[in-house]
Amino acid sequence: QKEVEQNSGPLSVPEGAIASLNCTYSDRGSQSFFWYRQYSGKSPELIMFIYSNGDKEDGRFTAQLNKASQYVSLLIRDSQPSDSATYLCAVNPNDYKLSFGAGTTVTVRA
Amino acid sequence: DADVTQTPRNRITKTGKRIMLECSQTKGHDRMYWYRQDPGLGLRLIYYSFDVKDINKGEISDGYSVSRQAQAKFSLSLESAIPNQTALYFCATSDPETGSLPDTQYFGPGTRLTVL
Predict the structure, then answer these.
(1) Could you read off the pLDDT of B15-66 as tens digits, one per residue?
(2) Which residues in A have their CB inside 8 Å of a CB on B?
(3) CA angle B106-A40-B45, nearest 5°?
(4) pLDDT band for position A98 (50/70/90)?
(5) Which of A4-13, A45-54, A74-83 has the highest mean pLDDT?
(6) B8/B20 Cα distance (integer angstroms)
(7) Are A32 and B107 a contacting pair at CB < 8 A?
C-alpha cells in the first residue's frame, strides 16, 4: 500500500465550477498535511497546509482533514483556467519526512 | 532573486559519467532536501540534511551521494550515471524554527537530467 494515494485524474471541470481532489494516507500517526500545486515542468508550490481536523479556507481553496478516516481533500472554488495543474498531496508522518502522492492533474476548461 | 536556486537547469549526459547537481538557498534555512520526480511516482526523497554535519539517506539513496558545503549549499552527485536516473531533480529547504507550523518545505526550480 502506498503511503499517500491520490486519484491520478485527469479531473476536468468547467470554468467557475468546484474542483474536488482527494487524498488518503496510511500512517495514522501523521500530523500535518500539505497541498502543493505544480505546473508542467515547474517546481511544486505550496498552496496550504492543515493539521487540525475540519476545514481550512484560504481564498478559493479549502482543505479538509479527517484523521479518523485518514483522508484529506482540497476544494477549488470558482475554478479558473490558471488552476490547470497537477496537485500534490503531501503528508508529514514524522519530523523530517514528507511523503508525496503521485498527484492529480486538473484541467479547467473555458 | 529566487530563494532556492539549482544548477544546472538541464543536463544531458552519458552512462557512466559523474554528475553534480547544485543547490543554493538564501532563505537561511537549516534543513535541505534532494528529491527526484518520475512520471506517475511522485516525489521521492534521496537525501536530507538538518545542518552541515547532519546528513541522512532518504528512501532512494543508492547510486547518489551528497555534500553539504555550507548552510546555504547542498550538492547531489551521481557517481556513475545510469539511464534509470533520468528524472527531474528538486532541492527543497525548510526551517522548523521560523515559527510557522508545521515545518514547510519550499522547492527550487528543478534540474532536468537525462542519462543516455
Answers:
(1) 999 999 999 999 999 999 999 999 878 899 999 999 999 999 998 999 999 9
(2) 4, 8, 31-32, 34, 41-46, 49, 51, 88, 90, 92, 95-98, 100-103
(3) 45
(4) confident
(5) A74-83
(6) 9
(7) no
Closest chain A C-alpha to B89 CA, distance in angstroms = 10
Contact A101 B90 (CB under 8 A): no
DSSP codes of every residue in A17-66 = S-EEEEEEES-TT--EEEEEEE-TTS--EEEEEE-SSEEEEETTEEEEEE
How distant is the Cα of B42 from the closest Cα of chain A, in angstroms?
A: 4
Q: Give the pLDDT confidence of B57-69 residue by residue, as tens digits.
A: 998 999 999 999 9
Q: The cell 482540497 sits on which residue? A: A74
Closest CA to B107 of B88, B86, B87: B88
Q: Residue A95 in 3-state DSSP? A: coil
Look up residue A85 and give its three cell numbers: 495543474
pLDDT band of residue B104 (cuts 50, 70, 90) is: confident
Contact predicate A72/B80, CB 8 Å:
no
CB neighbour class for B87 (10 Å; exposed up to 12, middle 13-18, buried from 19): buried
